[in-house]
Amino acid sequence: MFQTLSPKKQNSTVRKLFFLKGKKHYENAACRGSFAAAVKSERTAKTELTEGENTVEEQIAELAAQVAALQGAGGGAAVTNTMFAETYYYLTIPLMIIIHAGFLAYEMGASRLKNVLSSGVKNILAFAFMIPTFYFFGWWVYFGFPTGIPGEAGPMGISGVAYANSIAWGWGDSAQYMGPNIADNISGVFFGAFALFAATTASIMSGAVIERIQSVGFIILAVVLGSFAWVVAAAWGWHADGWLVTQWGLHDFGAAGLVHAVAGFFALGVLINLGPRIGKFNADGTANHIAGHNMPLTVVGLMLIIVGFWGFLMACVVPPGEGWSWFPDKFATIYGTPITLSALSFNILMAVAGGIIGAWLFTRDPFWMMSGALAGIISTASGLDIYYPALAFIIAFSAGLILKPCADWLERRGIDDAVGAVTVHGTVGLYGVVMLGIWGAGFPALAIADAPTISLIGQIVGAVVFFLCGFVPGYVVSFILNMFGMLRIREGAELAGMDVVKVPAHGYPEWGGNASHPAK
Fold this sequence. Notes:
The protein is mainly α and 520 residues long. It contains 17 helices and two strands. It has a two-stranded antiparallel ribbon. The N and C termini lie far apart (87 Å).
């Protein structure tokens, strides 16, 4: 009752209750003819009244102090929100690791029996080397160069070499943000999500070059791609201070260009110098199909990549209510534009379906159908926060349709892309970036006053930059590695099988010690 009354009314009510109680004592005593007892009863009632008043006032004061303490501490709701934001990003990390389980199965299945373990080892090493290199310098690059070289601070005040020095090194004063810190609930999980983006780029390139690349050369290429090349693209196009965003209105919510296209065209640069697998092309230039040893494993791997992409796209969303959030009460993209997980659910599902159906209409091959699912997501990724589901389906459907013809076109030019990574990630990635320039023109690209808007020209500029960020370092570094004999394995090792000469184990021991025989 007292919780609904003001303190003044509470005291008044208490007084009335104790007055009635005292009056009753007085009347009872008078009836017995004891005036002294009546007086004593009245005094007792007054004492009880005073004690009652003190008790209620003390309770009110105590409650007021507790409310003030909660308000001063930000309240339980603020603590809960911080824990939610930390848990949100934490969960994206194991979900994105499913992507790598998918790539592992996908590439091993696409390899011939004599190379199955070497393809798996290469993928595992890509993941392992990516985490420490991204920790030691990739994270610093992301915050250091959004405005370009020489790394000046941007208008948001969250970029530039000086800022990166203060938060992104694992030593000195910035180490408080790069290691255990009970007062910092976000740096580690945010870093973890970005490190998995980096590892994804290396895995994309990995599939294209299976069955003939040297392990050391591959690791060098993976580090250059995952901890430098794509990070530069992300700094320029996936940061509130990025010059592609502030000057050109680039929008690439789900990283179709800055992750997928960069990795895809980095792989193309490598493939030009690496050359095709032995037996891929005939003397007249026509191509032979080199089938992997396990199509079901490859298809399941592709499905696992789709599962992991829910975590990938989830990590592209900024939760609300924190000091680093865009909004106090709603989700946002990395550009600060509003988004909901509900919208993502509609569009991701429609994109997967559209990509599969589009590829199925052109080819009945299950490999390309599942690749179509991946192409469907990539083609819509730039605008998943903007598109309506029907439009997402149409764009994904068109990406599924062009997928196999684009891969065939590349193959006719002498490029041996073992899993179609250049087409699925590179070509379709840029297609998705440009499509947003058509269907999303006029939408704000950034949540600031006088924000730049999405335009076809801005998206094309971004697509060109992403192509160059991938292809140029991929070609140059692989060219140098080839000069020093560090790019491709020897012909004899390739013919015998990389597992035989590089891996001290057998993928399928029941086939005997020489695993190359059943692959012929």
